[in-house]
Specification:
A: mainly beta; 5-stranded mixed sheet; 4-stranded antiparallel sheet; 9 strands; B: 115 residues; mainly beta; 0% helix
Chain lengths: 111, 115
């Protein structure tokens, strides 16, 4: 399994960009990087995923380094509602391709 | 459109009773997954379905747990003779296919409390 390493917690000022790092140094060539977040009492919410190119959608941007050993999730203008636990997951080609969640980063957006 | 729907949202049961948890996936999604999350813990994978088949049941914690899916849509997770350690949030997710390029979309879970 390709494991991920994330800082346990981060703070960000409201209105500023939140940059959440993730290390996945053992990632294989056909494994995707996924980001989810979980707000208290809700199910995990899909944010974005990518293979090797940078990706952007209405929620966030995903920057993957050229060697694919790390990535950064960027929330361009963090709001208080972005306070959540953010999970970086490497999805490998196992049977069923289920996601294996680690500890995540607890992001606290402060006014 | 409608997301993944789970019912009930909360369930309190007495130790030893059986419970059934229901999941309605997003329409057209062929893959369906069950996870559970104990208080303050990470997500633990239980089982997945591709269509009505469950190729991998190794994540189910004991033989008291079973799941089925009918018509390639609704799924039911059944826990027999519930124990206090079964208390957790049970989460269901679905995806368009089981390819690892197909995101999982989660419901908000069923919070099970065994007294």
């Amino acid at each position: 399994d390709a494991k991920t390493t994330q800082p346990p917690s981060m703070d960000c000022a409201e209105g500023r960009a939140a940059n959440l790092p993730c290390n996945h140094s053992t990632i294989s060539g056909n494994e995707y990087v996924y980001w989810y977040r979980q707000i208290h009492s809700q199910g995990p919410q899909y944010i974005i995923h990518g293979l090797k190119n940078n990706e952007t959608n209405e929620m966030a941007s995903l920057i993957i380094t050229e060697d694919r050993k790390s990535s950064t999730l960027i929330l361009p203008h963090a709001t208080l509602r972005d306070t959540a636990v953010y999970y970086c997951i490497v999805r490998f080609n196992n049977a069923g391709n289920m996601l294996t969640f680690g500890g995540g980063t607890r992001l606290m957006v402060k006014p | 459109g409608a997301g993944v729907s789970q019912s009930p949202s909360n369930k309190v049961t007495e130790k030893g009773k059986d419970v059934e948890l229901r999941c309605d996936p997003i329409s057209g999604h062929t893959a369906l997954y069950w996870y559970r999350q104990s208080l303050g813990q990470g997500l633990e994978f239980l089982i997945y379905f591709q269509g009505n088949s469950a190729p991998d049941k190794s994540g189910l914690p004991s033989d008291r747990f079973s799941a089925e899916r009918t018509g390639g849509s609704v799924s039911t997770l059944t826990i027999q003779r519930t124990q206090q350690e079964d208390s957790a949030v049970y989460l269901c997710a679905s995806s368009l296919g089981s390819s690892y390029n197909s995101p999982l979309h989660f419901g908000n879970g069923t919070r099970l409390t065994v007294t």
